[in-house]
Design goal:
9 strands; Trna Endonuclease, Chain: A, domain 1; five-stranded mixed β-sheet; 266 residues; 47% helix; alpha/beta; single chain; elongated
Length: 266
């Protein structure tokens, strides 16, 4: 998984993966057993999600999430398959799925039938799934995935509103609405919908802390720099006073002041 979205997915893997794949594969995952994610023989790999599915015919379920196209994915999944089969001594079959959550068109291959032993894994593109499918879920972690799905020609505002209303319906009594609103905002980056999502959330009864968000911090820094420039150009305050008023490091103010002088604006 891409590091930027690891936190959201890793916090919610248990509640995302099993309901999601139960829905899209029509499979019973009501009884599973957790397995170690570490796979090491002479190579070392760490899977996103592994479970032993305890049906009448048990098997190992291996799931991966990918936010970008990776030309090596077919080889990677084949390596995972071999390591899993070796680790569990060929006692159980292995079923592999990859969930693609990226915005670019899916180009990864999921089968190689030219090998002496043909290999294939299941590849699911979340953008092919109607967003309404996720809104029907009783699981908040599933509901927020709607922002990554197919909007079915609905406007962004309508879809975001539907997602938030469903979250509010599920979470209005347990105080977790802020958490999932924040996760929704993080996932919105995968679809370049941060501005629309932030605008919606500001009208809703949630408090989102954006101060650790890269885009927010960069935007704040630019705004502060513009404020410093305006006050310097007004020539009403000195650097120390500006730094104090705007709560900006004095060194930053002086750097901007020197740049203005070099450009003969001061």
């Amino acid at each position: 998984m891409a590091n930027e979205y690891d936190k959201v997915f890793k916090e919610n893997l248990e509640r995302i993966f099993l309901p999601f794949f139960a829905q899209v594969t029509n499979t019973d995952f009501s009884k599973t057993e957790e397995l170690s994610l570490e796979l090491q023989i002479t190579l070392e790999r760490k899977a996103d999600f592994l479970r032993k599915v305890l049906t009448a015919n048990p098997y190992i379920l291996h799931l991966e999430i990918q936010s970008t196209n990776d030309v090596r994915m077919l080889s990677r999944m084949r390596i995972y398959y071999a390591l899993l089969r070796e680790k569990y001594q060929y006692q159980l079959p292995v079923r592999q799925y990859l969930l693609y959550i990226g915005q670019e068109p899916l180009t990864m291959k999921n089968e190689d039938l030219d090998l002496p032993n043909p290999f294939r894994y299941e590849l699911i593109d979340i953008q092919k799934i109607p967003y309404q499918n996720f809104l029907q879920s009783e699981v908040p972690e599933m509901v927020i995935l709607a922002i990554l799905a197919n909007f079915q020609q609905q406007s962004t505002q309508v879809v975001l509103g539907d997602i938030f209303n469903r979250l509010a319906q599920l979470l209005h009594e347990d105080g977790r609405l802020n958490k999932y609103a924040r996760h929704l905002y993080v996932l919105s980056k995968l679809r370049n919908l941060t501005l629309e999502t932030e605008k919606l959330l500001k009208t809703m009864p949630v408090i989102i802390d954006y101060t650790d968000d890269e885009f927010y911090v960069k935007g704040l820094q630019v705004a502060q720099q513009e404020d410093v420039k305006k006050l310097l150009l007004s020539k009403r305050l000195n650097a120390q006073e500006i730094a104090s008023i705007l709560d900006v490091p004095l060194e930053t103010v002086k750097q901007i002041e020197n740049a203005l002088k070099q450009n003969k604006l001061l």
